[in-house]
Amino acid sequence: MARFTRRHVVTSGCIVLAVAVSLVGAATIRDGVALSVALVIAIAGTATFSARGMRANHPTLVRVVLSAVAIDCALVSTFFFSATTNFNLAIGAAMSIVLLGLSFLTGASGQISLGSSAFMGIGALIMAMWANHHASTPIVVTLLIAVAGGALAGLLLGLPATRLRGPYLAGMTLAFAVAFTGIVNTFSSWTGGDAGLQLPTSATAPHWLVALFSVSTSPFVTNTMWITDITIVVTGVAFFFMANLFASRTGRAMRLLRDNDVAAELVGISLSRTRVIAFIVSSAYAALGGALWTLINNSVSPPSYSFALSVTILSLVVIGGIGTIPGALIGGIIYAYSANVISWITTQTGLNPQGNFASQLNGIIFGGLLIVTMLFAPMGIAGAVRHYWLRRRAGVVTE
Amino acid sequence: MDPFLTSRAVSDILGGITNGMIYGLVALSLVLIWRSTGILNFAQGAMPMFATYIGMVAFSHVFSYWPCVAVSVFVGFAIGGGTERLLVRHLYGKPELNPIVVMVGFLIVLEGAAAALWSTQPRGFINPFSPIDFQLGGKPVALSAFSLYEIITALVVMTTVAVLFRYTKLGLQLRASALAPEVSRLLGVRVNRMLTLGWVLSMGVGTITTILVASNFFTGLTPQVMDGVFAFGFIAAAVGGLESPVGAIISGVCIGVILQFVGDFLNSNYIILVALGILIVSLMVRPNGLFTKSTARRV
Questions:
Q1: CA-based Rg of chain A, rounded to a whole angstrom?
Q2: Cβ(A22)–Cβ(A14) under 8 Å?
Q3: Among B55, B73, B85, B87, which Cα is nearest to B221's?
Q4: CA B270, A298, A314, A368: dihedral to nearest 10 degrees?
């Protein structure tokens, strides 16, 4: 095994590149070091466990190890990141859960939803409502209740959705996204209307953890860090389950359904049942993401779960790569840093930050990227990279 | 005086018909594009909105209504044709997802661009019609000069489209190239031109609708003025069946009247909920719309 193969060259190249990029790109030296350590572990772990034999013989084991490695290095890096970076990381991680849900719905079962923002909003509101009435419930249980609420809403909307073809379904979910604010205002005694709800208490890091790492008078483990860690663990678990679902019997049935529904019915797959399952899973994931946002922000503001958010979610899924797991992660990272990038563009081009143009830049850029990606690389970043690797492996020389 | 005309129910029906005509027009423009190119245009609200802004700005110094309307409609034609030629043409024969995603992206870009160029402040579209209700025996009837103008314009547009499709050679070519593009091409119809024309026509209808909405004294023109109207128009088109222009108009008017009653007797928050309920129930009963003849899907 001492042979120095191309895989080794690529892996070490990636590590060097990752260290360089994180040292140059991070805001502080501490961030940069943390990021490069995390990336080195991640790349090394991925390279080891993506060896062909391992993947073929023990797929679930590889997925467990990969999720564990990913969660672990993300957790380690939160100890070094600044509070702002941690906050962005948590927001992006929660968003990637939502993206994964939509990616699964569209990529695996061929349905399209423009209602993700409403399902997120449902999860976010249930989280806040439950916490306001039963403050002593552990966070994990509250998250699960929010997920159950999202799944129920997904079932209600998914039942008519099973009979609809693409454009009708997209229009129906669009109407749901537009109706969400109306729904919230109709039940404003529970939901707080447009003003939204506050969590009664913010999530605080447990005392033993703070005590464990407290070196000097200032506590090392902050609440932001604790919330980020919760989000990362939840995200990792969500990704692990989805990876298994993609590969499972249900996942394969969904892909067949997407590619040829008549063939799927002929081999005994129930069309409506499979589609409803896909819709329920997707809305449960969206609700989980929304509930985590409530946890991170310590409050929920229903107007922010508007149709525009649905479009942002759709753009991120398309840009990352529909129906791929790395695509959802890429989308989440893009979302976490989009605000920074856009403000950077604003300062670089000398636009007035309060002006009309700067405030619309987000929508224009995401919409434009959506069109360009769909026209020129319909499988997004992850799809394009995978296509390139497959061509390389097949020995096709690309000029 | 007859108290019947000023009663609550009749007022709701009249107001509902006025709104419903608008929904019917949006639904009609969606159906035109769907029938000619098989695409559900999610930017059907935003594209005419942009055209209306351009027409308005072009004539913002003149302060006269009709030149603005004319310019807007012509810009609407141009945007429709240009979009079909430059953007939509690449989407034919692609999976269902692609056109939906691209048109949603286009919607967001147009709304962002309009807000960036002209801000989100509502702009009044000063027009010669009074928004004050007619009086009958000291009580208002739910009709004003402006709503009569809306209804009559809508009827004229609908009749024009119907006559064009039913009684002209051009309409025959449009229908033929939608139904059987290969055969039409063999018979000498320029199918590509017909596809473009379908978008141009639809955008003309859309722009006139947007002008009517923006001329309303109480709304004015904002970048997102068509969002809600588009949602109701889509619901009307889906309930009536995306294949059926007549169904689109009828269900548009019916939905307008029903929603007016809901808003008056219950609460305005319930309007969108009831609309969503109508959509879900009708799609569960007839997934292809109430006015479409059932057709077997080709595999």
A1: 22
A2: no
A3: B55
A4: 110
pLDDT value of residue A252: 84
Q: Do B283 and A318 touch (CB under 8 A)?
A: no
Q: Provide the CB-side half-sphere exposure for B19 (13 A, CA).
A: 23
Q: How far apart are CA A100 and CA A102, in angstroms?
A: 6
SS3 A157: helix
pLDDT grade, residue A56 (50/70/90)? Answer: low
The tens digit of pLDDT for each residue in A366-379 reads 889 889 888 888 88
ipTM: 0.82
Q: What is the DSSP letter of A193?
A: G
Average pLDDT across chain A, whole number: 79
Closest CB to A179: pick one of B234, B242, B276. B276
DSSP output for B232-259: HHHHHHHHH-TT-HHHHHHHHHHHHHHH
**Yes or no, beta carbons of A165 and B96 under 8 Å apart:** yes
Rounded to an integer, what distance in angstroms lies between the CA atom of residue A244 and that of residue A250?
Answer: 10
pLDDT, position A54:
63
pLDDT computed for residue B246 by the predictor: 87
* DSSP per position, B182-208: HHHHHTT--HHHHHHHHHHHHHHHHHH
Tokens of B42: 């999610």
Which numeric CATH code is attached to B3-125+144-285? 1.10.3470
Question: Per the structure block, which two tokens stand in for B114?
Answer: 């309009």
Contacts of B40 in chain A (CB under 8 A): 167, 170-171
List the single residue in A167, A174, A361 with the smallest CB-CB distance to B96.
A167
Whether residue A179 and residue B273 make contact (CB cut-off 8 A), yes or no, is: yes
Least confident of A51-65, A158-172, B143-157: A51-65
Q: What is the per-residue pLDDT for B47?
A: 92
Residue of chain B whose Cα is closest to the Cα of A158: B280
**Residues facing residue B221 across a β-bridge:** B123
* Nearest chain B CA: its distance from A132 CA (Å): 25
Question: What pLDDT does A1 receive?
Answer: 42
CB contact under 8 A, B97 and A322: yes
Q: Where are the alpha helices (DSSP H) in A163-304?
A: 166-186, 188-191, 207-213, 223-247, 249-259, 261-266, 271-297
Torsion angle of the four alpha carbons B240, B245, B248, B250, in this order, in degrees rounded to the nearest 10: -100
Above 60 in pLDDT, residue A214? no
CA distance A171 to chain B (A): 7
CB B204 within 8 A of CB B33: no
Measure A176 CA to nearest chain B CA, in Å.
7
Q: In terms of Cα–Cα distance, which of B175, B104, B19, B143 is closest to A167?
A: B104
Q: What is the pLDDT of residue B298?
A: 47
pLDDT value for A101: 92
3-state class (DSSP) for residue B95? coil
CA distance A364 to A370: 10
Kindly report the pTM of this predicted structure.
0.82
Where residue A71 falls among pLDDT bands split at 50, 70, 90?
A: confident
Query: Which of A163, A171, A307 minimises the CB distance to B284?
Result: A163
| Beta carbons within 10 angstroms of residue A85's beta carbon | 24
Q: Give the residue among A390, A388, A389, A258 at the shortest CA–CA distance from A323.
A: A258
Q: With beta carbons under 8 A apart, name residues in chain A contacting B115.
A: 356, 359-360
Domains and their CATH numbers in chain A: 82-392 (1.10.3470)
Cβ <8 Å between B40 and A110? no
pLDDT in tens, A261-313: 788 888 888 888 888 888 899 999 999 999 999 988 888 888 888 888 898 89
Q: Which residues of chain B have pLDDT under 50?
A: 298-299
Judged by CB atoms closer than 8 Å, whether chains meet at B228 and A179 is answered as no
H helices, E strands: number in chain A: 18, 2
B90 contacts in chain A (CB < 8 Å) = 375
